[in-house]
Design brief:
The complex is a heterodimer of chains A (about 130) and B (about 60).
Chain A: H1 11-15, H2 21-56, H3 69-79, H4 83-91, H5 101-128
Chain B: H1 11-30, H2 34-59
Helix pairs in contact in B: 1-2
The chains are: A mainly alpha (about 130), B mainly alpha (about 60).
Chain lengths: ~130, ~60
């Protein structure tokens, strides 16, 4: 016959008070706010960096005076950057130079910045609607 | 920014910069936890570079 085993005393459990639901919800809210604002700040920085680099590399900033469908698509993509479109126009006073690889890369940087900004806006819209984003 | 202040980057530098910036943006958009974000950023950066260099080599026989 064996002696009954005494229940194990967990000292850590006794010393720490259980977290209340309000602390949990506050922590979740803080994590959510930090996550959302961190994401927004990083999107802003990424789009801004891409625009400044693209304009600095003398990429083509498309205007509304488009000649063909590709120019229109480029214009729409560039417009996606929002206010940064005006920044790019003001930065690139020398005009585009796509005769070199740098200018061609710059054009892609600018278009990518616009599409990325639109993607971020769509993401924020989905998050505001309550869908997990 | 006038023409004299333009950035002069090589193909590789431009590709690295592009891959890094897009990977960071994608990581922050698609993952919430910091560790998950870092993993996603590193893996997508490596994939960007691997596929970019791979496509470059695949086009090499037709370049001349």
């Amino acid at each position: 016959m064996t002696a009954p085993i005494a229940p194990r005393q967990d000292s850590a459990r006794e010393t720490t008070a259980p977290e209340t639901p309000s602390q949990d919800s506050r922590r979740e809210t803080m994590a959510y706010v930090i996550g959302v604002w961190g994401r927004a700040a990083m999107c802003f920085l990424t789009v801004g960096t891409l625009v400044i680099l693209g304009a600095g590399m003398r990429g083509n900033v498309f205007s509304s005076a488009a000649n063909d469908a590709f120019d229109w698509l480029g214009y729409l993509a560039d417009l996606g950057t929002g206010t940064f479109y005006l920044v790019a126009r003001s930065l690139e006073t020398g005009g585009p130079d796509v005769s070199h690889a740098g200018g061609d890369y710059g054009t892609r940087f600018l278009a990518t910045a616009g599409v990325l900004n639109l993607l971020s806006a769509l993401h924020a819209y989905e998050a505001a609607r309550g869908r997990k984003a | 920014m006038n023409a004299g202040m333009g950035f002069k980057l090589s193909h590789l530098q431009s590709m690295l910069l592009f891959a890094l910036l897009i990977s960071i943006a994608f990581g922050f958009l698609s993952r919430r936890q910091p560790i998950e974000r870092v993993k996603y950023i590193v893996s997508s950066l490596l994939l960007f570079l691997l596929i970019g260099v791979g496509i470059g080599w695949a086009m090499y026989p037709f370049s001349r």
